[in-house]
Write a structure and sequence with these properties.
Blueprint: H1 13-24, H2 36-41, H3 48-60, H4 67-74, H5 81-85, H6 92-106, H7 111-123, H8 127-140, H9 149-157, E1 183-188, H10 193-196, H11 198-210, E2 213-216, H12 226-230, H13 234-254, E3 259-262, H14 265-271, H15 274-277, H16 285-294, E4 295-297, H17 298-305, E5 320-323, H18 327-332, H19 337-344, E6 349-352, H20 366-369, H21 371-387, E7 392-395, H22 398-405, E8 412-414, H23 415-422
Parallel strand pairs: 1-2, 1-3, 3-4, 5-6, 5-7, 7-8
This protein binds iron/sulfur cluster (2 copies).
Length: 434
């Protein structure tokens, strides 16, 4: 795509990077074919190619965003399906991030929107606030009919139960009988995940410890920053990014870290992008790149580094497990085969879901902010899951677990809970009736 940025504009490192990506785009429109919002809405401006034009126009003319631009950019899920399809390797993720930052700087949203977005940016990443708000929501749930549709949707999506957090972090002592050193990894426990599904972190730590891998959870790390990053609130996001980079890098230097494990693929995608985000920051770029290089999705880490001891899989009943590949996993991190191969080792029948490249509508805060589109995507996803008639659904992202469980009674588990069970861990509670 031809661009007309001035030399002065190109001195700005972010503009320069955006220009490079825009110029790669050859207008072919292949990306529209796999874009969920284009498929639903059929409007060129609700597809990746149209959004790239909108971002180019804003950045090139240095013009403030307007209602029309914001509407189409806000409708993007950041699912990155378009990046998997694009033959020219356009990094749409970086383009949409810069578009969102420009909107945040130049556009005044209506009062109600500003309040909701501010609320989400403060409450969701904070363990204490999130739990407090969820408890209050449970009290007002019977009276939700008095609220607007958007607030009703939000109330519906808030958790009703808070399982007890039994995460146990223990030191694994080097055993001289084992002729290998002990690996040491840091786990990102996820701000929302540790409140609503602590059993996912428990299964991760149990599984790693059982295979002689020490796991640490630095208390200073609260949130990966991706929630604010995708809301365009870059300053708030960078506070988390910088704290996380410094904390993990100090741990890496002083005590050694072999990997940073993510079991929430949305967060993992952002961690792997820290190196890019700080590419021009003299003080942090080396550290940020190291953190990105160390980051592995749990299934990626297990596949590359651990010889898993699958216990006598014959004694278990065989299930049909539908694997839902989260967008941040398959499109954001390009991790798709690892979880499927691990699941196959359990001896169960692993099924791929039709149209598996299309988002379930979760997408961070998308199901809270774009409820109508998210609902269509959820209904489509459930219909496709039901086509393969699974006993269980498995996925690697808490957002997808929450979203999909709102549309079906089929039990849905994090992939790591299944691997933990089949390598000696307890049977997940949600399967008690199966
Ligand atoms: S990120 Fe997803 S919703 Fe956004 S343009 Fe790309 S394919 Fe469409
Ligand atoms: S597929 Fe890639 S090159 Fe083609 S229009 Fe989409 S972003 Fe541009």
């Amino acid at each position: 795509m031809q661009t007309n940025f001035s030399e002065e504009q190109l001195k700005d490192k972010d503009i320069k990077s955006s220009e490079k990506e825009i110029r790669k785009c050859v207008h072919c429109g292949f990306c529209n074919a796999t874009c969920p919002t284009y498929k639903i809405l059929g409007d060129e401006l609700d597809g990746p190619r149209g959004r790239i034009y909108l971002i180019k126009d804003m950045l090139e003319k240095n013009k403030p965003a307007n209602d029309k631009i914001v509407k189409h950019i806000d409708r993007c899920l950041s699912c990155y399906s378009c990046m998997t399809t694009c033959p020219s390797n356009v990094n749409y993720m970086h383009l949409i991030d810069s578009g969102r930052n420009h909107i945040e700087k130049t556009f005044k949203r209506p009062f109600g929107d500003r309040i909701i977005r501010k609320f989400l940016s403060i409450v969701l990443p904070n363990f204490f606030f999130f739990k407090t708000v969820a408890i209050i929501t449970n009290l007002i749930r019977p009276f939700k009919f008095i609220f607007s549709n958007k607030l009703k949707e939000m109330i519906n999506l808030m958790p009703k139960h808070f399982p007890k957090n039994n995460l146990q972090i223990k030191k694994i002592n080097f055993n001289s009988n084992k002729k290998k050193s002990i690996s040491r990894v840091a786990l990102l426990t996820g701000c929302v995940q540790k409140v609503i599904s602590p059993q996912i972190n428990e299964a991760t730590v149990r599984l790693l410890n059982r295979h002689d891998i020490e796991v640490i959870v630095p208390p200073k790390i609260k949130c990966c920053g991706s929630l604010n990053h995708h809301l365009g609130k870059e300053e708030l996001a960078k506070e988390d990014f910088i704290k996380n980079i410094s904390t993990w890098y100090d741990e890496y230097l002083n005590n050694g870290l072999d990997a940073i494990i993510s079991n929430t693929s949305g967060c993992g995608t952002t961690l792997k992008d820290y190196g890019y985000i700080f590419r021009s920051n003299k003080e942090l770029k080396k550290k940020a790149k190291k953190i990105s290089d160390l980051t592995k999705d749990i299934t990626e880490y297990l596949s590359e580094n651990v010889k898993l001891n699958f216990t006598n899989t014959d004694k278990f009943k065989k299930f049909k497990i539908a694997y839902h590949s989260a967008c941040s996993m398959q499109h954001g991190q390009k991790v798709h085969n690892d979880p499927i191969k691990l699941l196959e080792k359990t001896g169960n029948n692993i099924l791929e879901i039709p149209e598996g490249h299309i988002c379930c509508g979760s997408a961070g805060t998308y199901n809270l902010l774009q409820g109508n589109i998210a609902k269509i995507l959820l209904n489509n996803k459930i219909a496709n899951i039901e086509k393969v008639k699974p006993d269980i659904i498995s996925t690697g992202n808490i957002g997808c677990i929450t979203q999909i469980s709102n549309g079906t009674k089929i039990p849905i588990l994090h992939t790591v809970e299944i691997i933990d069970w089949y390598t000696g861990g307890p049977k997940p509670e949600v399967l008690n009736n199966l």
